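Practice problem: predict the structure.
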Amino acid sequence: MINLLRFDSNKLFLVVVTIMLIFQKINSDVAKASNSNIQNQITTSQSHFITKNSTRIIAQKGGLAILPCVIKQNSPATVSWIRKKDFQLLTVGLSTHSSDKRFLVEHTRHMGHWSLRIKSVRDDDQGFYECQLSIYPTQSIFIELRVVEAVAEIAGTSDLHIDEGSTLRLECKLKRATENPSFIFWYHNNKMVNYDLQNGFSVKSINNEASNTNNEFHTKDKTANTHGQNSGRSYRISYNNLTINSGTTKISLSILTIKKVYMSHGGNYTCAPANAKPSSITVHVLHGNIHYCLSKKMYCY
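Answer:
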């Protein structure tokens, strides 16, 4: 009787071990199949994105930033935007979930464009933004936003000496600008003179049209009597993995001209573009031929 019990217990042990091995084999096969499915899903989900991961956007302070996220048209997923530094959910589909009204989704129907627009860009907007697809497992790309400050620059030295009766020409160009300013105002001793033709002031803008060929920029000069006013729709110049936002395809050069300078034209001149740091210069008007006399170290009266 004891031997029979020992035989049954040994047989039972073998049965239990066999069952455990079978279950272990099943779990291993399931795990392999699951991993294979996940890899397939990852490969499939990555193919939804047309925009490259780690694309860098440069936008100027106070301007408009457009963060691209383009997916293939056949993707059924919902697109969301998340700010990485504080995990703030900004948008889901076409709905904005941020109390900051500067954030808005720009969606182009039937083209898979889900760009995030940020108006009036601030320094603290700089960082990474996640464009996320609501598929399993969740897939994302990250877009980096860098914020720069555009500055005006008046050609020449900070002090200019000019003879009375001669012609004054001041050129102001923008540096580090990613979009055309909506205006460029000139000030003479704190008075705006863009339209002051009566006192001899003339202001015009020369627009350099930029195009991108083989990762190089080519410009074509155009002149327009806009008196500091420029307008245009947003665009993006892309090369490699870098995208630069801009308000127009033109880079402004503003020129102030006084054909015949009088003593009253002396003083401070400031070039002040929209959303850019202004630049100033002091103009000294010399009476008669005194400039020549001073250059020759002669006494004139």
